[in-house]
Design goal:
Helix content is 31%, strand content 22%. It has 237 residues and is an alpha+beta fold. The chain folds into two domains: 121 residues, 2-Layer Sandwich (TATA-Binding Protein), CATH 3.30.310; 70 residues, no CATH class. It has a six-stranded antiparallel sheet, sandwiched between helices. A three-stranded antiparallel sheet has the order 9-10-11. It has a two-stranded antiparallel ribbon with strand order 2-3. A hairpin with a 2-residue loop joins strand 6 and strand 7. The two termini are 27 Å apart.
Length: 237
């Protein structure tokens, strides 16, 4: 998420547009390096050879090797085309050519990319569509829970849809809104003697709020405080 936010800030600073593409059936593009065998699926068994198995050449969904095989193939492809992998963020690739630069960020089967050369970007779209079956989604609008609006005045990021999902999940859609996320002067204790609550539900709630801080930094202090009581939360927490 930090990398995505950094790319968005760079695009806003240089007035670049951020584009998005989606790989159709990404895991089916992975080529297996090791030997993997599966039983013949029902309805496709060869008569008289029911006891035989099939050797896979390419990955299938549900196969534990599938994500690794797909990542290996796309990584190999990018490096072959002259992209450098960021040593600190392995899902980020950068290509430089005669003063032009292009950034590509990969999250499983979703790609976001941007650069200072429109021809370079169009060429990237054409090549990727030929190499993999992909969907051109145009300007980035929704990525990893972030809602992005790009316009002449800048790039605006929010998580309205995600926030509504949290409220629905924890049955808080009808609660009254307040201006402060935590009452001033609140003091929480690990051993307050209060009634214990479902720890897994509490952790789920805190984790959801922590992801929401990607666009609402004013929640950070409050979320940080309540995250101290993940092990044995009580009603007060």
């Amino acid at each position: 998420m930090e990398t995505v936010r950094l790319l968005i800030s760079m695009a806003a600073q240089h007035k670049w547009s951020i584009y998005q593409m989606d790989v159709k059936s990404a895991f089916l593009n992975g080529i297996l390096e090791e030997e993997v065998y599966v039983e013949q699926p029902l309805g496709y068994m060869r008569r008289g050879e029911e006891k035989k198995v099939l050797r896979l050449k390419k990955a299938l969904y549900g196969l534990k090797q599938a994500p690794r095989a797909w990542n290996y193939r796309i990584d190999k492809y990018f490096k072959k085309k002259g992209y450098e992998q960021c040593p600190y963020e392995h899902a980020l690739y950068i290509k430089k050519s005669k003063g032009d630069v292009m950034f590509v960020a990969l999250y499983v089967d979703d790609l976001i990319f941007m650069g200072n050369n429109a021809e370079m970007i169009q060429e990237f779209k054409d090549i990727m569509t030929k190499e993999f079956e992909m969907t051109d989604m145009g300007l980035m609008e929704y990525f990893l829970g972030l809602e992005v609006k790009q316009g002449e005045k800048g790039i605006f990021v929010s998580q309205v849809r995600y926030a509504e999902e949290i409220l629905n999940k924890f049955k808080m859609t009808n609660c009254n809104p307040v201006s402060t996320p935590m009452e001033p002067g609140t003091k929480l204790s690990k051993f307050d003697g209060g009634d214990r609550v479902d720890a897994s539900k509490y952790r789920s709630l805190v984790g959801s709020l922590r992801y929401l801080t990607s666009t609402t930094p004013y929640l950070l202090l409050s979320v940080g405080i309540v995250s101290r009581y993940m092990e044995e939360p009580s009603y007060s927490h």
